[in-house]
Design brief:
267 residues, 6-stranded mixed β-sheet, Immunoglobulin-like, mainly beta
Length: 267
Amino acid sequence: MLVILSIIPFNIVFAIAENSSIQQHQQPNLKASDIYQYYTMVLGKDIKNLVIVIPDEGHEDPNQSPKDLRIVNQPYLPQNAVVNVGTIVTWFNADVDHPHTISLVDNNSKSLIYESGIIKNYTASRPIKLNNTGTLTYSGPSFDKGVPSYKMNGTLTVVNQPLTTSFNNTTTTANTRSPTVTTTATNNVDTISTLMVPANQLDKAISEIKGQGFGIDNQYAFTSMRGGGSTPGGDKNQVLLVLTSSGKNLNEVISALNEIAPTMPYK
């Protein structure tokens, strides 16, 4: 019996057997557009660390009125990830003035295997190493008194991944949805993170990101779910960035994100 991870688009389809061995799939290929459109990131065996970012206003229920909507279309970036056995995962809270917690449940045993405790603004949860194949569900409350029943959900699918990650060099602006993509094999990248920035702050953000030792693998411009000029940062156009790091330990990566995220004009 095969379990199909249907949330992944056909170009990166996984068919995962009950013993969690991969039956068929294509090369893991990081695209910010896929993360945005399909809520999913697929990583190869070369990636050792994944930082999942809780974006600003990620706690908002998408069914709220426009002025209260979240900015991006998912509560976590990425909301769903496929990773190799042994990958270390942490959650970084970039949701301004909102604490978060993460609970991780094994879908097979239904047992709770991880609780983060409170993750304060611009800090990360303690990391967890995923040593066994299987599908895990993670979630947290919104901590928003206006939507007390809303729950933030995501998934982690852990596989024996035989393939490495393909990286993409892209050039795009907030006014185009058709970036030029060149796929490359980038050696030594071992950590992946994401970041959301207002398009009118993109040049500044890229300069700061590179100054902290990150590479920028891929980017995707999108329109805020809020629309108009009401988006924090004063720009309805936003950009989702895929960040790469090589040779840094996870504490160094989180420290760098801690320097970058507060400079974004979200409130």
